[in-house]
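Changelog-adjacent note: as of this version, every example in the card shows the full chain rather than a window. The one below runs 340 residues end to end.
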Amino acid sequence: MKKRIGLLVLAGLMVMVYSSSDVWAQKVIQWKCQAAYPLVSEAGKHSIKWAKAIERLTNGRLKVDVLPPGALCSVPDIYNYLEKGVIDASVTYGGFYSGLIPESDLQIGLPASYMNWQEMWDGMYNKGLWKVIQDGYDKHDLLQWPIGGEVYYNFMTKFPVTKLEDFKGKKVRALGIWGKYAQALGASVVVVPGAEMYMALQLGTIDGAIYGYTGLQDIKLAEVVNYCDFPTAATVNIALVISKKSLNKLPPDLKAIVEETGRYIAGDSGQDQLYNSYLSYLISEKKGQVKPAVLPESELVKMRKLVKPLYDELAAKSPNMAKGIEIIKQHLKELNRPIE
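Full-length structure tokens:
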């Protein structure tokens, strides 16, 4: 009799276990992705693409609500909200947060570094740069993957540029490490919000701007600049960033899906914006709105020498940053564009 009762209890427990696991398997989990860019913009679309991909890959078990900028927090607060698990994911620009995570500067792309997405991908995933950046993000319980943002990122100016001396005394809009780059080349840096750039250029408040060439058509900068500098100073990234607190609450299979697919979804999504950056310039040139200003190799050699102190400054921030800078410098040497 006791044996029979024991078997009945065991059977009941097994039913409960299987029932609960089945319920867990069917449970729909809702995440919040706080976008840093308007959802209709090229950069804003990455959040939507990632959310749709994750819902499809998890058969609808993980759904992501993509929220417009400012819906839950301001853009400067996004990393703090992610770290606390208040929001689960975001697509944003790492350069906004380099004061919190210095490795963000390595993530966005440094002046005179990687000139196309192939070089960037190789540096990130084959040379070890992604791991260095992730070590910095780990301290804040965040997981990140770069998204290609601009294949052309350099000076757009109202004045012709044939040599580095042409930048001297010119007022240029630039931010963060790119502001230091402009200063290294002799320009005076003016901080102008993106929304005010068009008017600042039109009124002559600034003579140029360092910005992605997508902006030539997106925000009509081709109407107020005359020249675009080549070659690009870098391919510049934004990033998909996920809260590890949120990630660790997922069932193991869903967690694995998010972790294993992140870099590929981000990499694929970025190709659209990279192409549109390329296309934006071609359209602007074809319309006769802008002309290319191509610096000769002799000037590029000078430029890389001027940039070296910026790399050294970043390397001095921490052993991890020094490791990342060394990876980039060795890679650029391999590509025959040494920073020295």
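Structural remarks: The first strand starts at residue 29 and ends at 34.
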